[in-house]
Amino acid sequence: MARQAPDRYVAPTVQRLRLRYAKRGRLRFSSHRDFQRALERALRRAEVPMAYSAGFHPHPKVSYANSAPTGVASEAEYVELGVSATCDPEAVRAALDAALPEGLDVLDVVEARTPDFVNRLEASVWRVELPGVPHDRAVAAVTALLAADEVIVERLMKNGLRTFDARGAVLAAQCAAPSDPDTDCAILTLVVRHGTPSVRPDDVLSALRRVADLVPPKPPRVTRLAQGPLDEAGTSVVDPLAPDRAG
Amino acid sequence: MTSPAPTDASASRSTGQSVFDALEQLLPLVSKPIQYVGGEVNSVIKDWDDATVRWALMYPDAYEVGAPNQGVQILYEVINERPDALAERTYAVWPDLEVLMREHGVPQFTVDAHRAVGDFDVFGLSFSTELGYTNMLTALDLAGIPLLAVERGEDDPIVIAGGHAAFNPEPIADFVDAAVLGDGEEAVLLVTDIVRDWKAAGRPGGRVGLLLELAMTGSIYVPRFYDVAYLADGRIQKVAPNRPDVPWRVRKHTLMNLDEWPYPKKPLVPLAETVHERMSVEIFRGCTRGCRFCQAGMITRPVRERSITGIAEMVDNGLRRTGYEEVGLLSLSSADHSEIADIARNLADRYEDSQTSLSLPSTRVDAFNVDLANELSRNGRRSGLTFAPEGGSERMRRVINKLVSEEDLIRTVTTAYAAGWRQVKLYFMCGLPTETDEDVLQIATLAREVIKAGRQVTGRNDIRCTVSIGGFVPKPHTPFQWAAQLDHESTDARLYALRDAIRADRQYGKAIGLRYHDGRPGIIEGLLSRGDRRVGAVILQSWRDGSRFDGWSEHFSFDRWMAAAQTALSGESVDVDWYTIRERQQAEVLPWDHLDSGLDSEWLWEDWQDALAEVAVDDCRWTPCFDCGVCDQMETEIQIGPTGVVSLPMPTVPSAGAVLATP
Predict the structure, then answer these.
(1) Residue A56 distance to chain B (closest CA, Å)
(2) Which of A29, A33, A38 lies nearest to residue B27, judging by beta carbons?
(3) If pLDDT is split at 50, 70 and 90, which confidence band does B288 have?
(4) CA B322, CA B346: separation in Å to the nearest integer?
(5) Looking at the partner chain, which of B355, B459, B660 has a beta carbon nearest the beta carbon of A47?
(6) Which of B355, B658, B660 sits opposite A58 (nearest CB)?
């Protein structure tokens, strides 16, 4: 006499919405799970007509892509929603942005008109601020990194310490001239290809330490500026929502 | 580890200024940094200069435990609704951050605007348990506030303790400036008024002048205005005010008409994961079941119900404002609400087609409770149901006044299994007054009968029963306040005997799970619960030796506490055993006798004698008054239904997304 999952009506998905959101300021310390909970509650507060999965524990249809690590800010995180009634994307954007706490900001919502969204996220552009690191020092380190064919780094992952190359995934790296020449705060812009294992900004920093002994005296501030398909030159990314907008 | 925090980061900071820039540097280096950043939905940041009275509220445990606490959320909102006041929250920081804060001179901060706790006018701490005392000392120390109340200066906050543990604040009397007993809603407004007027009048009498104003209300306890004298054998001779204008006894606060206080109206929604991932609505306060071990039931009398309409409004409003998918109907014994059946049916009807689930964290052992649980889980999964018989034998249950026969219990549990619940959890205590080994071993027999009957009624073998058992700690203001606590060796011996008895059962043993905790932490809790002012030195010593987060088994050290007690009590005629495993006599002055919970001490003593004689008393909600004293002394009354409202004219939940969907 095991109880069956209730045979209740489950509203079908009639529309899929893709949204881009930012993780800013103090809320960059939220983890992916923290964001999931915050989003699901915001969807309820904003009364977005979500489609749900069937079963004992119906879940709203939300797909997450490629989230930035805890502590890393982002201007380009992506989520896909399945809704049970056709919605105006801009109305959903505004309602959801208002319902989420300040610092989790919904920037863009488009109706999904194309498949394979996640595969489109080929690379990310990262900005890495290095307080306390002089510009010249950072330029030298980046030059050394780009000159190397391979830089092996280590990272502790769920299944133990892994060793991998952090150089191959770096498609471009540059060090912008400091906005305030009196303060030592080098700013790197990195374009890093997604892959397995995924090379994250802290892995690139490990690589800089390895090739040039660059050890930031203060915690770096990292922001994902964009992610999407590589451009033709293969050194930057373009808007991953463009095909949906065009469709 | 316990050196005062250096002040380099705070040197150039003006009062009320955020310390977030300094804290932010440390966050990438600690675990779960999200717990320190605030920014929760429904949190409030008010302008520092607009408020006259500024409160820092602390739940002295980790954020994941403290953030969902209803008491702090209520007071936070009640204070912030006042235009002349503001409240921010602070929680215990984990040791990894504590070390970094000391290294970098970052003070104890609030999570709202990240202001230094030392900048506030009032530092209020809510103690649900005594095991938060060492975390208070960490917070004071990190805040740069002197640990001893008498050493504080004019600019230091007034440190006020509240919560259930504040009903005996004597062990922390040296560290707090004041303690408030009972319901906090009106009390914080009273304190706010007094602080505001004192400031407006030019702070007459300075810090002591303010404390005197608080003490003269008769409902705020200021320990420094009372002297304790001891007898040669270590017992208390008397506790007396040392100033003429201070009352001999301090009475508790009792909030009446819960419907007028529908807080929290805007429950906080933490970003970090917490121990309660749901919204709570308090459906009544107080309990008159009269379980003799239960401090909460004794000190929160009388019963005051929220009405069925008031509850429905809070559920509806709270869900809209939080987006939670679960609502817990909270109280000390939720199935006892006079209109609970109508409440459950109405709410279940209303949310049947939404993705909202309802729960009733009740532990009453009867079939009615199962009906309620069935109603609230119409669509959901029926995984586990919890009952709390507390005592293993019927004799034991007469002693503790938890009246449930073995027959009732078996019937209740089989009803649950038959209704599709697969797992039943049973709560018990070990070390109750007059308990013998046999009383505890009866738990194994009971669990076996439960499984046997469950298998019969369901025809299945996969049903389970989990026995959860904890050591009993006698608490102040209960009939068991005079009782000897069972020593931890005997507690452990009984628990192991029970474990062995369950394991040895080939037929049913595998279907019975046993969860227990060893008896040692209970002894320290007992020391802190029934301690007097001399225990303050033990707390300070233990904290200096590294005690933190004593409610967490991975941080708690019994040996450290016992060593600290040895050192701190070396010059006294008392020791840990004296405070814990010693039975008190009626004539003894108890450390909390000058603090009035409303309970008549004659009645408490009679109830203790009834316990020893295995005589039970009824619930005064349904039966005539048995003169516990509360309603008379506190000029309060039981407030219960029926309201006559059976079915609610509640608006139906609007079809989700009506606004966002395009036609």
Answers:
(1) 6
(2) A29
(3) confident
(4) 21
(5) B660
(6) B355
Helix (H, G, I), strand (E, B), or coil: what is residue A180? coil
Q: Look up the pTM and report it.
A: 0.95
In chain B, what percentage of residues exceed pLDDT 90? 81
Q: Quick check: A45 and B321 CB within 8 A? A: yes
Residue A174, pLDDT score:
95
C-alpha B308/C-alpha B320 separation (Å) is: 19
- Is A47 in contact with B273 (Cβ distance < 8 A)? no
Choose the weakest-confidence range: A46-55, B70-79, B439-448: A46-55
Residues B420, B481: contact at Cβ < 8 Å? no
Q: Residues B616-641: pLDDT tens digits?
A: 888 888 888 888 989 988 889 999 98
Residue B656 pLDDT more than 60? no
The better pLDDT of the pair B463, B548 is held by B548
Check residue A56 and give its pLDDT.
72
Q: Which residues of chain A have a CB within 8 Å of the CB of B661?
A: 49, 85-87
Residue-level pLDDT at B439: 96
Are B458 and A1 within 8 A, CB to CB?
yes
**pLDDT of residue A136 exceeding 90:** yes
Residues of B in contact with A84 (CB under 8 A): 657
For the stretch B359-410, pLDDT in tens is 887 667 887 888 888 888 886 767 788 899 999 999 999 999 998 888 989 9
How far, in Å, CA of B424 to CA of B451, rounded?
A: 10
Per-residue pLDDT, A1: 39
Which chain B residues touch A71 with a CB distance below 8 Å? 27-28, 33
Contacts for B638 with CB less than 8 Å, ≥ 6 apart: B288, B302, B303, B304, B620, B621, B631
Contact A101 B662 (CB under 8 A): no
Report the candidate in A30, A47, A18, A32 with the shortest Cα–Cα distance to residue A101: A30
The pair of structure tokens assigned to B145 is: 């506030």
3-state SS of chain A: helix, strand, coil percent to 5? Answer: 25, 35, 40
**Which secondary structure element, helix H or strand E, spans residue B535, and what is its range?**
helix B535-544
What is the reported pLDDT for B70? Answer: 97
Of residues A84, A85, A101, nearest to B41 (C-beta)? A101
Q: Give the pLDDT of residue B661.
A: 74
Res B604 pLDDT > 70: yes
Q: Which residues pair with B151 in a beta bridge?
A: none
> Considering only CB atoms, which chain A residues are within 8 Å of B28?
71, 219
CB B246 within 8 A of CB B215: yes
Task: State chain B's mean pLDDT as an integer.
Answer: 93
- Identify any residues that bridge with B428 across adjacent strands, giving them in sequence order: B390, B469
A66 contacts A119 by C-beta, under 8 angstroms: no
> Which residues in A lie closer than 8 A to residue B275 (C-beta atoms)?
none
Q: Rounded to whole angstroms, how far apart are CA atoms B82 and B14?
A: 24
> If DSSP codes are grouped into helix, strand and coil, which group holds residue B305?
strand
- Contact list in A for residue B20 (CB cut-off 8 A) is 26
Q: Looking at residue B4, what is its pLDDT?
A: 46
Residue B653: band (very low, low, confident or very high) from pLDDT cuts 50, 70, 90: low
Sheet with B158-162: strands ordered across: B85-91, B53-59, B122-126, B158-162, B178-180, B220-221
> CB B34 to CB A70 under 8 A?
yes
Q: Which of A27, A42, A50 faces B39 most closely, judged by CB atoms?
A: A27
Whether A38 and B661 lie within 8 Å, measured CB to CB:
no
The size of the A-B interface in CB pairs under 8 A is: 118
Integer Cα distance of B340 and B345 in angstroms: 8
Nearest to B515 by CA among B427, B424, B386: B427
E strand map for chain A: 15-23, 62-65, 73-83, 104-111, 123-131, 152-157, 160-165, 170-176, 185-193, 221-228
Q: How far apart are the first and last CA of chain B?
A: 64
